[in-house]
Design a protein that fits this description.
The structure is a single chain. This protein has helices at residues 25-29, 48-57, 78-97, 110-128; strands at 12-17, 33-39, 67-72. The chain has 134 residues and is of the alpha+beta class. It has a domain at 9-97: 2-Layer Sandwich (Double Stranded RNA Binding Domain), CATH 3.30.160.20. A three-stranded antiparallel β-sheet has the order 1-2-3. The longest helix is centred in the middle third of the chain and has 20 residues, at 78-97. The protein starts with 11 loop residues before the first strand and ends in a 6-residue tail after the last helix.
Length: 134
């Protein structure tokens, strides 16, 4: 199975734990929190150049083994938490793979330069008028 970003489902390792926080007896009895472990270094989903960019962007979130850990405990259901983990991973990867457009430097227009100089001149006249005359 492949999810939207192009990752293979067999590369994911899910573990389950008790959820934290309020929830009463359900939280105390069930392992509903899902923890997703995905190894970025050994994945076959991306070519080497994209993998290098991901490693650079996500280096603070990688473990020593090159794993990304994502925990979800928003829901009372294990399946919903598992799909939430996959959505979080997808959003994380899309954010890391986003390349902003290069900014094209442009000259300021003639009128904007004139307005800026006029406002500077007006400000200097205001300050010059505050001086005491001896």
């Amino acid at each position: 199975m492949i999810i939207d970003v192009g990752l293979f489902f067999h590369e994911f390792d899910f573990t389950y734990a008790r959820s934290r926080g309020p929830g009463g007896q359900n939280v105390n009895r069930t392992n509903s929190a899902a923890i997703l472990r995905w190894n970025l270094l050994n994945t076959q989903a991306f070519p080497e150049n994209i993998k290098a960019r991901l490693i650079e962007k996500l280096q603070n979130q990688l473990t020593d083994d090159g794993d990304i850990l994502i925990r979800s405990e928003e829901f009372r259901d294990q399946d919903q938490n598992r799909s939430s983990c996959l959505k979080k991973l997808q959003a994380l990867l899309q954010k890391a793979l986003f390349v902003p457009k290069k900014r094209v430097a442009t000259k300021p227009t003639r009128s904007s330069v004139r307005k800026r100089l006029d406002s500077k001149k007006r400000q200097s006249e205001t300050k010059a008028n505050r001086k005491k005359i001896y």
